[in-house]
User: What shape does this take?
Amino acid sequence: QVQLVQSGAEVRKPGASVKLSCKTSGYTFTSHAIHWVRQAPGESLEWLGWVNTGSGNTRYSQRLEGRVTITRDISATTAYMELSSLRSEDTSVYFCAREIYSRGTTHFDPWGQGTLVTVSS
Amino acid sequence: DIQMTQSPTSLSASVGDRVTITCRASRFIGSNLHWYQQKPGKAPNLLIYDASSLQSGVPSRFSGSGSGTDFTLTITSLQPEDFATYYCLQSYSAPREHTFGGGTNIEVK
Assistant: This one.
């Protein structure tokens, strides 16, 4: 079955960077883009960006552009999300999700289990 | 940017109740609207895609409707496992942007 398995929880100090992984299995990796979404404690979901797993092309949220980098390793069927210049407001659970493209629209299914990133001095 | 406004932000309901959640887009998004259920400590789970298509494996008590700017998620007979938070997602402005609604928490009355 399709699975997205994310790396474990991270703790960083303000100003540091963090790189998370999302290992996929159960489907052809290059047939579906991977998106990253985060959720601060008690808050809604925020879309961060996505990577075309075939070409490697990316698109990022304007709010985080310049601090977020999404990459992929085809041989490892894994996507990565790196966030730099971390601030306390970046403390969130970070999710990866597979894109489904149908009839001109896109949605996300399934999702990884999430990775908690805590930014604290 | 497209803003998504969900209402209500929370509601109290009982098992067997009919529940309706709405999502309004700040401008036209066609049928590019999807609904997710999220339980505490878990990832969101897709319920409805393209405004009204039921995801495989999702119970038929869930349904979605709407197009343009106004959308509705309906649960016809609330079950104990349905107490959760529900989010809408617009993908009309993809690939540049995707936007979630603020969420609706359904709690036990």
User: Anything to note?
Assistant: The first strand of chain B starts at residue 4 and ends at 7. The interface with chain A takes residues 1, 30-32, 34, 42-46, 49-50, 55, 87, 89, 91-92, 94-103 of chain B (CB under 8 Å). Chain B has no helices and eleven strands.
